[in-house]
Every structure is written in C-alpha cells, then in structure tokens.
C-alpha cells in the first residue's frame, strides 16, 4: 500500500511518530506561555504545583516571565522527573503511592500559600499524578495509613476519578482546600489526565470546588470492597456525620478569586496524532478520549471492531487508524496474584488485543502512556503487529499465560517491542492507535 502523504511500508514507525505528536501537543515548554496571566506589577508571585508535568511547567513559567517579574515557589513531581530551575524549587516524591517527601512538600506549599496577602498572586501548576505527589493527610491520619489506602484503591480497580473522591476527603490540601487557604487571587494552569477533563478530579482539584462528599467517599469504599485503615474510615465517617468540615463546594464565594485554565487535554493530543495520520494518507477515526474500563475487556471490544473492518470494510474503510485516549484499569487479585505482575494498563490492553486478533494480517497497534511510564516498569507502552504471538511463542513466553499473570511487560520485553521514552514530563493519559491497512 502507498499513499500520497508518503506512508509506504513502515507502520511501526508511523505509530511511534503519531505517539510523539500526541505527547508534543501537551508539552508544557511549548504551551504554558500562551496561558499565563500578565506579569505581576506589585506584590509577590508565588508558584506552586504538583504532578508529573510540574517541573517542566515551572521551567516554562520561568522562561516566560524572565526579566518581567519576580517569582518564587516550589513544585513537587515524581522521582526522576525533575528539571533544573532557578526560582521555583523542584522537589521529587513518590508516585503512585505517596511518601514523606511529598507530605513535607505539601505542608510547605500550604504554609506558604496561607501567608499570601490580597496584593500577591498565586500561580498553581497542576497535572496528572498530583493526587499522590501533593499528599498532606487530614489530621489524625498517619502517612502510613494514607499509603495503605492508596495501595488498596489501586489494587481494587477503582477508576481514578473515584479514587480521587476518597483522597480529597482525607486531605488537608486537595478538594479546593489550597484555594481556600489563599487570600491572594489564584490562577491555575491544568494539564488534564482524567477522562472528561473534570478539573475537580485532576490532581484531586486543589483549587477547584468539590461537588463530592464524605458520604460519596464511603460509598466508593463499600462498592469496591476496599479495606482501609481505621484512621481513614473513622475520619470519613465523622465527616459524613458533619463533625469534620466538608470540602468547599460549587457556589462558594472563595472561587470568585480563582481562575482555573485547562491548557492541555487528551482530545487535543488525539487531534495532533490524527493530523499526522492524515498527512500520511491514513483516515483517522477518534473513538473518544474518555475510554475507561478493564484493559482486557476494552481490547476485546476494539478487536471486534477491527474484525468488522477487516471483513467488511465497515463501518470504516481501510486504510484507517482507530485512535483513542482515556484510562483503563487493571484489577489484580487480592494480594497481587502470583507476584509476576509487571507492566500497566497500556501493555495489558495491547496483549489482550493481540490475542483477540490472533495474527490478523495488516493490523498494527500501539498503546502507550503519554507520561512515559506504563504502570510498574520503565516503559511508556508497547507495539504489536500480526507476528506478535508467534514471536512470543518462539521466545518461550506464551501470550495467554502472560496475560493471565498480568505480565504483559514480560512478553513485550522478550520480543523487543516495548516503547521506552523515559519521563516525558507531561501527562494527558493513555494513547492507543490501531492501524488497519
């Protein structure tokens, strides 16, 4: 197959190119400057933030304001995601499970925000991962119990939006409480990593009104059968009885001084990838930027659509690229199963897809996390093609056994099909593309 856009015979290279385009569309060093408020003429400008993109966002702020205004502050990002900055200190901390470094950073951020006056300005930089990185447990909840709660929520397969409802209600800084602590006007720049781009869910919404309640958090624990420490359950129950103040709600006058700006989204990245496919003569179809559910089950649905296209050229005619974003889940057995579980939702989706398609000719796919880290290992995701299962069998890693063990990483590593980028220092969730030729 050849196309006017120049695509001829290297579908894997094209898939990687589109993933790179998706990541570039959310690169803070490229996009932050266009969303900043004018430089402050009087008072202090305090820059704080949390997330996988925090360091690159802080560096972009420094570059944009250089020679125009004085800034200071600190942001917290994941280990190995830091960058050298001059005025905004970068602290690295634990993710996806919080740690004491994040707790100390969050405490300092809250103290500095609380000291601001109405003549100052607060600039908050928010991106995916901020819920774990900006962890300041509510009074009476030790950090060890917050860690245990996070691990349990990750294990039971709760979607990130519901995990964050729980986390907002056991925090002193999330769920709008950071904005509540500031007397200064607040501008927040947000890089979205959640399906639907709900600002109250991204990094658990430190400057966003929170419509959820303590009762909602308790209901989530019940529905997923999550076992949490007594300090956490007791705090949530006291909140549900009105003994602990709720998070600030929509309509609270405090949000009149808060300007939350969404600067990068999954949909924007999918559009950038679609444009790259179109340039190569491939019709792009965006299936949605809010795809959620168990990774294996989502893959089975996508495989059925691929088979329909391959057999009947409907509902889309080849050559076509099916593109989607969002965040699937991988639910592990209680205790983690066999102990071999390696990888993440992208590689598990891709292995399930490969098994369902069983060597179908002319179908190539990529699934990768735009933050550069898919789950437990150091890869962003993986690639699959019609030879994936046969090559895995030859390498002694039968696909079905690897999927059952939740060890997709082991399979793709064995056949050399991991996508490794290192930290991208941004995060607009997962990118999936299935190329049908």
Automatic annotation (TrEMBL):
Residues 15-237 form the MOFRL-associated domain. Pfam families: DUF4147, MOFRL. GO terms for molecular function: glycerate kinase activity; hydroxypyruvate reductase [NAD(P)H] activity. Residues 234-254 are annotated as: Disordered. GO terms for cellular component: cytoplasm. Gene3D superfamilies: Glycerate kinase, MOFRL-like N-terminal domain, MOFRL domain. Residues 320-430 form the MOFRL domain. It comes from the Bacteria. SUPFAM superfamilies: GckA/TtuD-like (SSF82544). InterPro entries: GK-like_C_sf, GK_N_sf, MOFRL, MOFRL_assoc_dom, MOFRL_protein. Its EC number is 1.1.1.81. Keywords: Oxidoreductase. Residues 234-246 have a biased composition (Basic and acidic residues). This is Hydroxypyruvate reductase. The lineage of its organism: Bacteria, Pseudomonadati, Pseudomonadota, Betaproteobacteria, Burkholderiales. The gene is ttuD_2.
């Amino acid at each position: 197959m050849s196309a006017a856009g120049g695509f001829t015979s290297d579908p894997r290279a094209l898939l990687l190119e589109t993933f790179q385009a998706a990541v570039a569309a959310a690169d803070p060093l490229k996009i932050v400057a266009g969303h900043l408020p004018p430089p402050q003429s009087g008072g202090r400008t305090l820059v704080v933030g949390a997330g996988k993109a925090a360091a690159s966002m802080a560096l972009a702020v420094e570059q944009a304001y250089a020679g125009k205004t004085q800034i200071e502050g600190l942001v917290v990002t994941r280990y190995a995601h830091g960058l050298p900055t001059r005025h905004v200190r970068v602290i690295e901390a634990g993710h996806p499970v919080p740690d004491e470094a994040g707790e100390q950073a969050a405490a300092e951020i809250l103290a500095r925000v609380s000291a601001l006056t109405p003549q100052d300005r607060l600039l908050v930089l928010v991106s995916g991962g901020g819920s774990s990185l900006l962890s300041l447990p509510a009074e009476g909840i030790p950090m060890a119990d917050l860690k245990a709660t996070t691990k349990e929520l990750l294990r039971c397969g709760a979607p990130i939006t519901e995990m964050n409802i729980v986390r907002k209600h056991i925090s002193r800084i999330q769920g709008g409480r950071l904005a509540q602590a500031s007397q200064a006007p607040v501008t927040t720049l947000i890089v979205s990593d959640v399906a639907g781009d709900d600002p109250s869910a991204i990094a658990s919404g430190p400057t966003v009104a929170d419509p959820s309640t303590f009762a909602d958090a308790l209901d989530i624990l019940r529905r997923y059968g999550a076992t949490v420490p007594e300090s956490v359950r007791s705090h949530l129950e006291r909140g549900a009885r009105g003994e602990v103040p709720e998070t600030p709600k929509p309509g609270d006058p405090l949000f009149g001084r808060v300007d939350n700006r969404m600067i990068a989204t999954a949909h924007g990245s999918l559009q950038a990838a679609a444009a790259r496919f179109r340039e190569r003569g491939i019709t792009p179809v965006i299936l949605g930027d809010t795809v959620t559910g168990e990774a294996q089950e989502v893959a089975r649905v996508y495989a059925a659509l691929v088979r329909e296209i391959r057999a009947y050229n409907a509902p889309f005619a080849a050559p076509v690229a099916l593109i989607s974003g969002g965040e699937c889940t991988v639910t592990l057995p209680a205790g983690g199963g066999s102990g071999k579980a390696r990888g993440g939702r992208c590689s598990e989706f891709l292995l399930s897809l490969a098994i369902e398609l069983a060597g179908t000719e002319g179908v190539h796919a990529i699934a990768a996390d735009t933050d550069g880290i898919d789950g437990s290992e150091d890869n962003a995701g993986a690639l699959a093609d019609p030879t994936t299962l046969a090559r895995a069998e030859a390498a002694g890693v039968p696909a079905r056994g690897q999927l059952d063990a939740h060890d997709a990483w082991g399979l793709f590593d064995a056949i050399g099909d991991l996508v490794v980028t290192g930290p991208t220092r941004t995060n607009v969730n997962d990118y999936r593309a299935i190329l049908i030729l």
